[in-house]
Design goal:
By secondary structure, the chain is an alpha/beta fold. The protein has a single domain, classed as Rossmann fold. It has eight helices and seven strands; from the N terminus they run βαβαβαβαβαβααβα.
Length: about 250
């Protein structure tokens, strides 16, 4: 493990996070797979990777999230990237804010990744420079009134990226990675996902592997710090009045 660069992927047991873990493993990195309740899936994924481990905590518990970063920073000699992929995605109404949904979204989707990034940039060691990759969402450039608290929390996280990039040490970089509609979510069935995920400029489904390739590029490539990379087949360039989940249903 010590000879490999390391990456921590939060929410790495499932969905896009798991695709990102596999991509970094294919690149020869040691992959730290974070999970909260998906321990069995995380362990199954780690068993298939050449160099990997599982760490677990609830990102709503800020002390636990920060302790996780401090513990990894102490023992990883070349911790080259932090990819914050974990998020909560609960529906609430733009006309009636749900305080509990908002509080959880802000804790998990904004507060935790921002604080973890700060601690990572303060504590982690890497001779090649450190990379923070915060997953946001294409809907920040293509707003609609659905999933109000989720979207608010992703705006908060996105706002940290240019600020942290400006303050980062020389050689460190901070990015946002903004996927479009990738995998079935909320209460979609497969047919609904197939239709809704083609609602972009190219009329195609964007794959989780494309998001993973983009995370790899940000961690290893020459892109200037502070930027946002969209992986959405052009969805963010559209003007969609509702989330594609509901557009596909004609709602």
């Amino acid at each position: 493990m010590s000879s490999r660069p390391a990456v921590l992927v939060t929410g790495g047991a499932r969905r896009i996070g798991a695709a990102i873990c596999r991509r970094f493993a294919d690149g020869g990195w040691h992959v730290v797979v974070h999970c909260n309740s998906s321990t069995a899936e995380a362990e199954a994924l780690v068993a298939k990777l050449p160099s990997a481990e599982v760490v677990g905590c609830d990102l709503a518990d800020l002390d636990a999230a920060r302790a996780m970063i401090a513990g990894l920073a102490e023992r990883l000699d070349d911790w080259r990237a932090l990819v914050n992929s974990a998020s909560v995605f609960a529906a609430d109404d733009v006309r009636a804010l749900d305080p509990e949904i908002l509080a959880e979204a802000m804790r998990v989707n904004a507060r935790a990744p921002a604080a973890m990034a700060q601690d990572y940039l303060r504590l982690a060691r890497s001779p090649a420079g450190r990379r923070v990759i915060q997953l946001t969402d294409q809907k920040l450039a293509n707003p609609n009134p659905d999933f109000f608290s989720y979207t608010m929390s992703k705006h908060a996280l996105a706002g940290t990226v240019p600020m942290m990039a400006m303050a980062a040490a020389e050689g460190d970089r901070v990015y946002a990675l903004a996927p479009g509609a990738i995998l079935a979510s909320h209460d979609q069935d497969p047919d609904e996902a197939e239709a809704s995920h083609r609602m972009n400029l190219l009329g195609r489904r964007t794959g989780a592997d494309e998001v993973a390739d983009a995370a790899w590029f940000l961690a290893t490539g020459p892109l200037a710090t502070g930027q946002t990379l969209y992986v959405d087949s052009g969805q963010h360039l559209l003007d969609q009045p509702r989330d594609v989940i509901f557009l596909a249903r004609g709602e």
